[in-house]
Every structure is written in structure tokens, then in C-alpha cells.
Amino acid sequence: MDKKQARLRRARKSRAKIAELKVVRLAVHRTNCHIYAQIFSGCGTQVLASASTAEAELRKQAANGGNVEAAKTVGKLIAERARAKGIETVAFDRSGFKYHGRVKALAEAAREGGLKF
């Protein structure tokens, strides 16, 4: 089993639990260069809000999209966009990544922005 398959195996368990509860899900995906956050509906078929360092406006603010500061910016932005849609409570889906570094920074910034999870 390679690294990607192992991560996806870890992600399946938490996603199954979130799908069972039918709650709104904040999913995080990270690559070496960027970090992405999306909020999915309770049924998992619609993207309600999204933010990433690949967006033009965030690229101007952060020179490097693959660091903790960029992740904090994305966390604040996703919380702002979610609250604009009336979403206050979400389930955090770290997609099999460790809750450490950029993933942790994004989660804490989203909490500071007003999301509860």
C-alpha cells in the first residue's frame, strides 16, 4: 500500500461516520504548493462554500501557498464564506492527513472565524 492509498483508507472511516450523521462537512485537502477547503452539504452532493490558496486574490496576499500562514488565511476565508451562507456548525474532515501543521492551522483559524466543530 502506498502513501496515498493509506491516507484514503484513513479518510474513509471518518467520512463514513460524518455521512451517517448527515451533518455539513468541512473537508481539507493539502498538496505541496496549496491547501484547499470545501464545505459540503449534509448529503455530500453540493459544495456550499470553498476557499484555497490557488485563488487569484489569495495568491496576491501569500507568496507561498504551501505554508502555515497561507493555511490560516484560507481558514479565516472559509469561515467567513460559511457564515455568509448561514452555516455555523460543521464536521471537520481532515481527509486522512495528520491534525498537525497546515491542517491544524486551517482548523484553528476557522474556529476563530466563527465555525464550530
Overall description:
The chain is of the alpha+beta class and 117 residues long. It has a single domain, classed as Nucleotidyltransferase, domain 5, CATH 3.30.420.100. The chain is built from four helices and four strands; from the N terminus they run αβββααβα. The chain has helices at 3-21, 56-61, 68-84, 102-112, and strands at residues 25-30, 35-40, 47-52, 91-93. Strands 3-2-1-4 form a four-stranded mixed beta sheet. A hairpin with a 4-residue loop joins β1 (25-30) and β2 (35-40). It is globular. The model has no long low-confidence stretch (mean pLDDT 94).
In the predicted model, the low-confidence regions spanning at least 5 consecutive residues are none
Largest sheet: 4 strands, mixed
Helix tally equals 4
Terminus-to-terminus distance = 31 Å
> What percent of residues are in strands?
15-25%
Percent of residues in helices: 40-55%
Count of folded domains: 1
Question: What is the architecture at the second tier of CATH?
Answer: 2-Layer Sandwich
H/E topology pattern: HEEEHHEH
CATH fold group? Nucleotidyltransferase, domain 5
Helices and strands in order, then pairings?
Layout (H helix, E strand, L loop, with lengths): L2 H19 L3 E6 L4 E6 L6 E6 L3 H6 L6 H17 L6 E3 L8 H11 L5
Parallel strand pairs: 1-4
Antiparallel strand pairs: 1-2, 2-3
Please name the defining characteristics of this protein.
4 strands; alpha+beta; Nucleotidyltransferase, domain 5; single chain; four-stranded mixed beta sheet; globular; 117 residues
